[in-house]
Amino acid sequence: MDSCSKSIMDASSPFDCLIFDLDDTLYTTSTGIGEALKKNIDVFLVEKFGFPEIKASSLRVELFKTYGSSLAGLRALGHDISADDYHSFVHGRLPYELIKPDPQLRNLLLSISQRKIIFTNSDRIHAVKVLDCLGLNDCFDQIICFETMNPNLDTSTRPDELPVLLKPSMDAMKIALEAANVNPRRTLFLDDNVRNIAAGKAMGLHTVLVGKTVKSKEADYVLEMVKNLGQVIPEIWVSGMNGDDRRIRRSKSELAAILTTTAVVV
Ligand SMILES: [Mg+2]
Question: What Pfam families does the database record attribute to this sequence (predicted)?
Fold first, then answer.
């Protein structure tokens, strides 16, 4: 289908594009990947910088709160760390085998005809590995990642010359939306981080807080699991008819079939 026909087909859906965060959004925190990542960062701080082991965790938390990540904080404080070295250390030893294929989520994503984009603070190698583990590597049109937001970091002469840009900074959001080339008013943005959701709202995106049961102030929707998308935001699947101006909604039975194949098996 050419893009013109596709836009006619999707004319009645309020969304032209869905932008998904990756970690803790497309898979749950219960995998243990997030905890493993925190431990790896602590080990990085101890081994590479000689910070006392007992203080590593609190330093990591402080750097995250103030600068958005340990890498961003360490560089802002003048430590000359290459982003590639940092990412290969903290991501390279993650237990990726804990992330299992998710065919239900795959079916759900494939049933969405609009553009689907990954927007993650992680580096591209990590993003591709995670998508491979989940069996979702062919479900997205674009990956916006660390390298997209920080294309010139390697050319800086001092570590604090260029700030590391990450969600939720507005500069990072602007670069991402420009790279995605979307109209924020017709784009759904899904993320598990409340601050990222607030930044998305400030950019005019429709926002979905994932992994929580209660909406934050700037969230338009909340999903306990991304797989609940069909139940909570069925208007994603609204589509128009070819040729005439009659608008149809996906039939109840069609939507039920999608929801059944994406139902959570407890
Ligand atoms: Mg996340």
Answer: Hydrolase (PF00702)
